[in-house]
Amino acid sequence: NSEYRNKTTQHQQQHNNKYIQSKRRKEILFNKSNEFFLARFGRVAKDTTTLCLWQRVFALFFLYLLLPSFAPLVKNIGNSRSRSISAAQKQQHSTAAKKRPRNICHGLARRRLSLSGTFLAPLSFHPKIHPQVDASTMKAAMDSAVTTRTSMGNHQQPKDFTMFHRCRRRCNIKSISSPPALHPSHMLSKGLLCLLVILLWGHSTQAASSDKERERKLEVFEGVAVDHQIGYIGDFDGIDSGPPYIIVAEAGVETDLAIDRATGEIRTKVKLDRETRASYSLVAIPLSGRNIRVVVTVKDENDNAPTFPQPSMHIEFPENTPREVKRTLLPARDLDLEPYNTQRYNIVSGNVNDAFRLSSHRERDGVLYLDLQISGFLDRETTPGYSLLIEALDGGSPPLRGFMTVNITIQDVNDNQPIFNQSRYFATVPENATVGTSVLQVYASDTDADENGLVEYAINRRQSDKEQMFRIDSRTGAIYINKALDFETKELHELVVVAKDHGEQPLETTAFVSIRVTDVNDNQPTINVIFLSDDASPKISESAQPGEFVARISVHDPDSKTEYANVNVTLNGGDGHFALTTRDNSIYLVIVKLPLDREMVSNYTLSVIATDKGTPPLHATKSIFLRITDVNDNPPEFEQDLYHANVMEVADPGTSVLQVLAHDRDEGLNSALSYSLAETPDTHAQWFQIDPQTGLITTRSHIDCETEPVPQLTVIARDGGVPPLSSSATVLVTIHDVNDNEPIFDQSFYNVSVAENEPVGRCILKVSH
What we know:
Elements: H1 2-41, H2 48-84, H3 87-99, H4 104-118, H5 120-123, H6 135-154, H7 162-170, H8 184-210, E1 214-221, E2 229-232, E3 246-249, H9 253-256, E4 257-259, E5 265-268, E6 279-285, E7 292-299, E8 312-318, E9 326-329, E10 342-349, E11 356-362, E12 368-374, E13 385-394, E14 401-411, E15 419-420, E16 424-430, E17 438-441, E18 444-445, E19 455-459, E20 470-472, E21 478-481, E22 492-501, E23 508-518, E24 526-531, E25 539-541, E26 549-556, E27 567-572, E28 578-582, E29 587-592, E30 603-612, E31 619-629, E32 637-638, E33 642-648, E34 656-659, E35 662-663, E36 674-677, E37 688-690, E38 696-699, E39 712-718, E40 726-736
Helix pairs in contact: 2-8, 4-7, 4-8
């Protein structure tokens, strides 16, 4: 048994060696065929149909080249064949034929053997591939191929055992002897016969290609190491001829996969990534049998973490939003497949008082969509905003995570009314306090934001202060005296102050203010001045005419039972422009005495002196700072009445020419000036334009010195008063000529006659332009 096993192992080794040699011969034949196809048609055959077409063309072309040259040789060899073959050889042939299996596969193997032995040598010297090879060289190569094939047959050289071995295996033949050597003439006739076999083989291959191709499915995990073995193409228990194969692959297959055409082994060239490419498809074409479609599927690994489309997002909720309200958040996407894609979401941090929770659902596209849901009560005044850190986890073990920050702003709702810092306020004010005197200030706060928290104040006139003795600043809450107070008339004033916010549905609250007026008994006259301007401020217009009222002055002496009876009032200051007048010695009026000019004197300081008739007399003084307001009584004034400017004739539109400047002694809008150009077509003012704010004059279009060498512009300066005042200035622009016009004769043709006896130097013609 041991000896039998050794012999079996040795026999199997020899069989494997012969099989490898057979595959190498097939590769050589395939490469030679493709070389011819490349040289003939400029590209390598990539599919079965193209190869079949090539085989037919190759056979016909080879017949076209060989038949004319070898027809006589075939004829001579055929005539002498019967004489050259001896009886022993016939017996040897007969014996060998009996030993050979009567199998069509064996015959096909013999024909392929003849193809590889007969045609490979002439192929390398084909005149279409090597045009420099002549006919004699071609014939010598052919004879060499025949001799070589004969010697191989006589010395039992190794042959192509690919189909031979498979036919022997199918017929259950244990051993077979090498076919006998053939005569050269027999080899040549066999070679011609093989040409016909090529045609038939091409037809059968083309028909086979039309059959349904077989499918080979392989799988490999993404991320495996480079040069990882995926599998073999032809593991089909010998149904096809096996390698070598012609590979027809999709784009990028041979970039990522290493395909050994000789063995059919497939390995990785690079690290595969299923998310980049999930499968690879190729067609392997064997030398015989049906085509094999190989599909390599890349299996998924958990190599991608869930990823949110952006690291953070911002949403807003009104603080009165009810529970269970949802807002859709950006979902995380995982390039991996189930179960390695996104599986759940969690709130990691920032969820103060568990105000929010997450819910998710998966759609048909496989994405796990995310919603943020309110689970508690929102109060902007307590928590104005949240910053939630949300994580997405996939189904790996351990899971991979992706994070996103959701910044939530709680929008304000007007749900808080203003609150006073006191429920009741108290103040005292002397009865001689002037109008505009501040009494006290109330304050209320609102915890809402923006307009909802902006508080304005008002006095409820229906419930208090119907005489409007006081006024309140709606913004600050300061209460001022609005009318002169009188202790004898009313000693206590009760006010109801309302604080109201600016919400769409405003909320309000009230507070009470008690103001007590105190009696003045200091034996000194008091002076009360009320200015008669539109806003009760100390001002008078410079256009006021003599006799116009400026202010009202009242003086009180508490020591006198008869009011104003013992008081004398005088006015100092004002350079004689103001004076006092009275009709009943009780009310004094400050009037304009002389015309005013704000541009000369813009402010006056007046002193009102009240002196009683006591012994010794007492007096009181009050200073009045009076501001003179402006009227538009001064027109603009230019720095110059006449300006000169220069500009080149070739200046482009927009070129600066000159900047004029005017001043107005008025103030405010009355001194705001704007510039313009008067429309004077006769002086070509349309060539220029002026900036109304800066007074910069620029060219509007191209100018022409020949048309107008010195255009005259009239610049008008107008102020912003009502009505506006204006003034003008003249600008002379000198245009400097450039040589932009060629001379033009007054005539295009001159004709003159000259007598032949005219002396030298006599003028015969004068031209002009």
